[in-house]
C-alpha cells in the first residue's frame, strides 16, 4: 500500500458531511450567501490584489522562522511523476510560499528544473533563503523564483517554449496568454501550430498546492486558464487544497464568511474550502482532462490538548489534452 493511500482514508467524507450538516452549531456554514451585486471594476480588482499581496507579505513576515511550515514530502508519493519524469523536465510551482513544496521536489529529482512564483516578495525571500541554505549547489542552478500574481496578470513570456519565444520576439505578441493586461490575438494569426509543432506553453508540470484557496472565488477560473496556458500538451497539473468541512473551516466564525465555503481571516488572508464538483467544474471548464480527483481524509491528534482533528483536503491530477 502506498503511503499516500495509507494517510488519506482515515475516515469517510460522506459520514463527516452528514455529521456536520446535522449539527446545529455548524448551521451558519451552510446558509445561502448572497454576493454583493455591485460590479467590480478593474481598479477595484487591482486594489484587492494589492491588498491580498500585502496581507500575504505580512503573513510570511510573521512566520519568517520557517517553523510554521513543514516540507511536503508526501507530494512525491501523491505525484510520482515528479520523480519519474524525463531529464530536464520543467515544473512551475504556483504560490510557492516559503518553499515547503519546492524543496522536496528539488531533493526528489536531481534532473528536474523548478520555476517558483508567489505574489508575496516576502515569501520569495523566504523560499530563496530555504533553498540557498540547503547546502546543495545544484539547487541554485535548477531553481528559478520570480514574483507574479497569476490571479490578475499573465505569466511572463519567458515561460514559453523556444519556438514560442522566437515567435514572440518577431511578433511582439504573447502567444500563450488569455489576454489579461495584454493585447489579444488569435494564435493562428502569428504562426501555424502544424508548421511549428509548437505547444502553447512550455512547462511539463504545474503544481498548485494550497494556493487556489487563497484567491477570491470569482478570480479562480481565469487563474486556472493561465496555468493551462503555460503547460505543454500532455502536461500535468497537480492540485491539493482545503476540502469542504475540513476542521479549519468549521473553526471560522460567522462574521468571517465572505461567500459559501469562503472565509477571510482577521489578517486579511483568504481561504476557500472545495467540494469535488467545484474543483471538477473549474478545471474541466478551463480545458483540462480529469485524471484523479478525491477527498483525502486524515485524522491527526493535537499534541497540546490531545484532541482528534479531522482534516479534509482535495487531491487532484489534471492533464492538458494532447
UniProtKB/TrEMBL annotation:
Claim: Methyltransferase is one of the keywords in the record: yes
Enzyme Commission code: 2.1.1.-
Pfam families: Methyltransf_23
Keywords: Methyltransferase, Transferase
Gene Ontology MF, one: RNA methyltransferase activity
UniProt cross-references to InterPro entries, sorted A to Z: METTL2/6/8-like (IPR026113), SAM-dependent_MTases_sf (IPR029063)
Biological process terms in GO annotation: methylation
Gene3D superfamilies according to UniProt: Vaccinia Virus protein VP39
Family to which this protein belongs: Belongs to the methyltransferase superfamily. METL family.
Reported function: S-adenosyl-L-methionine-dependent methyltransferase.
PANTHER family with a match to the protein in the record: METHYLTRANSFERASE-RELATED, TRNA N(3)-METHYLCYTIDINE METHYLTRANSFERASE
Protein name per its UniProtKB record: tRNA N(3)-methylcytidine methyltransferase
Protein source organism: Prunus avium (Cherry)
Upper lineage: Eukaryota, Viridiplantae, Streptophyta, Embryophyta, Tracheophyta
Gene coding for it: LOC110754257
Amino acid at each position: 500500500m502506498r503511503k499516500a493511500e495509507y494517510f488519506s482514508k482515515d475516515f469517510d467524507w460522506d459520514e463527516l458531511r452528514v455529521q456536520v450538516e446535522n449539527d446545529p452549531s455548524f448551521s451558519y456554514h451552510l446558509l445561502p450567501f448572497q454576493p454583493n451585486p455591485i460590479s467590480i471594476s478593474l481598479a477595484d480588482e487591482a486594489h484587492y490584489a494589492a491588498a491580498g499581496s500585502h496581507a500575504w507579505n505580512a503573513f510570511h513576515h510573521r512566520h519568517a522562522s520557517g517553523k510554521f511550515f513543514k516540507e511536503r514530502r508526501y507530494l512525491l508519493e501523491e505525484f510520482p511523476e515528479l520523480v519519474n519524469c524525463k531529464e530536464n523536465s520543467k515544473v512551475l510551482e504556483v504560490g510557492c510560499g516559503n518553499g515547503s513544496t519546492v524543496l522536496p521536489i528539488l531533493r526528489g529529482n536531481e534532473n528536474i528544473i523548478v520555476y517558483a512564483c508567489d505574489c508575496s516578495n516576502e515569501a520569495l525571500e523566504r523560499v530563496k533563503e530555504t533553498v540557498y541554505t540547503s547546502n546543495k549547489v545544484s539547487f541554485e542552478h535548477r531553481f528559478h523564483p520570480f514574483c507574479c500574481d497569476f490571479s490578475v496578470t499573465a505569466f511572463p513570456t519567458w515561460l514559453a517554449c523556444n519556438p514560442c519565444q522566437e515567435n514572440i520576439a518577431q511578433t511582439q505578441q504573447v502567444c500563450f496568454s488569455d489576454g489579461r493586461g495584454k493585447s489579444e490575438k488569435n494564435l493562428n494569426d502569428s504562426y501555424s501550430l502544424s508548421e511549428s509543432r509548437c505547444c502553447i506553453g512550455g512547462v511539463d508540470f504545474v503544481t498548485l498546492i494550497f494556493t487556489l484557496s487563497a484567491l477570491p472565488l470569482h478570480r479562480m477560473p481565469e487563474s486556472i486558464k493561465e496555468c493551462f496556458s503555460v503547460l505543454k500538451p500532455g502536461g500535468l497539473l497537480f492540485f491539493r487544497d482545503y476540502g469542504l468541512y475540513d476542521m479549519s473551516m468549521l473553526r471560522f466564525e460567522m462574521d468571517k464568511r465572505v461567500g459559501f465555503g469562503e472565509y477571510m481571516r482577521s489578517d486579511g488572508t483568504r481561504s476557500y474550502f472545495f467540494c469535488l464538483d467545484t474543483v471538477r467544474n473549474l478545471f474541466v471548464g478551463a480545458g483540462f482532462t480529469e485524471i484523479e480527483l478525491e477527498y483525502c481524509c486524515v485524522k491527526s491528534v493535537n499534541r497540546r490538548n490531545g484532541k482528534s482533528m479531522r482534516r479534509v483536503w482535495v487531491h487532484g491530477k489534471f492533464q492538458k489534452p494532447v
